[in-house]
Amino acid sequence: MRLSRAKIVRLSHAITNELVSSDDVEFVEDRDTIRQHTVQILEGLLRDEEKIDADVRKKITSQKKDIPEGSAEWDILYRKYYQEEMKRLGVAEERPAR
């Protein structure tokens, strides 16, 4: 997902404000340091997500048959491969078999 720098900064302010208002959080650093660190974390997560997206798209295009983007098959493969990459990174929970 692409977010502008302004949106990332706005999100960091919202997150910091939420943390400040919580009774469960105690700041050991000043508010701006926490906000700047939040920006770094968000940017890192977005970079990781872009890499996963590129890897998944590459995996789909490397199939023996041509699978047009936007087709039902492409969407299914994208979700499957994306979920696999997220699991590999330890981000997604495994769902129990039904």
Structure description:
The chain has 98 residues and is mainly α. It has helices spanning 5-21, 31-61, 72-88. It is built from 3 helices and no strands. The chain has one domain.
Q: Write down the overall geometry.
A: elongated
Helix content: 55-70%
Per DSSP, the total helix count is 3
Terminal CA distance reads 31 Å
Structural class: mainly alpha
Could you provide a short overview of the structure?
By secondary structure, the chain is mainly α.
Main traits of this protein?
98 residues; mainly alpha; 3 helices; 66% helix; elongated
How would you summarize the topology of this molecule?
Blueprint: H1 5-21, H2 31-61, H3 72-88
Helix pairs in contact: 1-2, 2-3
